[in-house]
Amino acid sequence: MESTLHKPALAAAKTALKAMTIVYWIATALFCLQIGFTAYAQLRLPEVAQAFTHLGFPAYFRVELSWAKFVGVVLLLAPAPAWLKEWAYAGFGITLGSALIAHLSLGDGPEAWGWAAVTGVLWGLSYFFWRRLCSGRRRA
């Protein structure tokens, strides 16, 4: 193992990578908690089922979407190939964007689409830092 005392740039890079990793895991954990909660709510809470009906979606789509969210959360949290994580992020991005569009097109207020917007910010942070970590590891 080589010392970083004589290589301050290497020490700074390691510190930056560690900080980026911490921010990534915080954003990803919060994102996965939020998505996991929404998946559970879609399966179990009648008021969420009514919201899907309000948006014009069939009942089977709510169940299908919930299980897809659970699978996506597992893919983000577990060691999985990068291409699978990329697909999970893409699926979540499409889901969140579609939720915003559906609520806004019906004229729903922030109480309806706000959760999707906040979850979208967490999704964006998680994805941004995941991509940065992937490119940092390739360079190392």
Question: In words, what does this structure look like?
Answer:
- The structure is a single chain.
- This protein is mostly helical and about 140 residues long.
- The protein has one domain.
- About 85% of the residues lie in helices and about 0% in strands.
- The chain contains five helices and no strands.
Could you give a short description of this structure?
The protein is mostly helical and 140 residues long.
Main attributes of the structure:
single chain; 140 residues; mainly alpha; 5 helices; 86% helix
SS elements, strand count = 0
Over the alpha carbons, how many angstroms does the gyration radius reach?
19 Å
The stretches of 5 or more residues where confidence is low (pLDDT under 50) are none
Largest sheet: none
Order of helices and strands: HHHHH
Helix residue percentage: over 70%
Provide the number of structural domains.
1
Shape: elongated
Average pLDDT level:
92
